[in-house]
Design goal:
It is a single chain. This protein is an all-alpha fold. It contains six helices and no strands. α1 runs antiparallel to α3, α1 crosses α5 and α4 runs antiparallel to α5. The protein starts with a helix and ends with a helix.
Length: 121
C-alpha cells in the first residue's frame, strides 16, 4: 500500500477517535469510566490523537508521527488486554501494526528529520 494512502487512512482513524473523545461522546465517557481512567485523561488522549492526525497529513512529519502514534497505541492495546475486550484489542493492534508499518516504510524520513534537528542545535 502506498505510504501516503496509509497516512490518510490513519489520519482519518485518529481524527475520528480523537474527535469522539474531545466531544465527550457517551460511548467514550462510559469506556474511560469502565477502565477507571479520569475524564481528563480521555481529553488528553483525544488531543494527542487529533494532533497526531494532523501530523500524519504533513509529509515531512508523517513517518515520525506514525512511529509516535504506534507507540501510543500500545497503551490502548494494554487497556483492552487487561479488560478482556478482545474485539477492541484486535482493532487497536491492527491500528498499531499499520502505524508501525507506515513508520518503517518512512524510516529514511525519520533519520533525515533527526539529522536536521541535530544540526539546528
Amino acid at each position: 500500500m502506498n505510504s501516503r494512502i496509509l497516512s490518510y487512512i490513519l489520519a482519518l482513524i485518529f481524527f475520528a477517535s480523537g474527535g469522539a473523545k474531545l466531544l465527550s461522546l457517551p460511548f467514550e465517557v462510559e469506556a474511560f469510566a469502565r477502565w477507571g481512567y479520569a475524564i481528563e485523561f480521555m481529553y488528553f488522549t483525544g488531543a494527542i490523537e487529533l494532533v497526531g492526525a494532523l501530523g500524519l497529513l504533513l509529509p515531512r512529519l508523517s513517518s515520525f508521527t506514525s512511529l509516535c502514534l504506534g507507540g501510543f497505541m500500545l497503551g490502548a492495546i494494554g487497556t483492552h488486554l487487561v479488560h478482556n475486550e478482545w474485539l477492541m484489542f484486535s482493532v487497536a493492534s491492527a491500528i498499531a501494526v499499520a502505524a508501525f508499518w507506515r513508520a518503517w516504510s518512512g524510516r529514511n524520513q525519520i533519520c533525515q528529520l533527526i539529522t536536521t534537528l541535530r544540526r539546528k542545535k
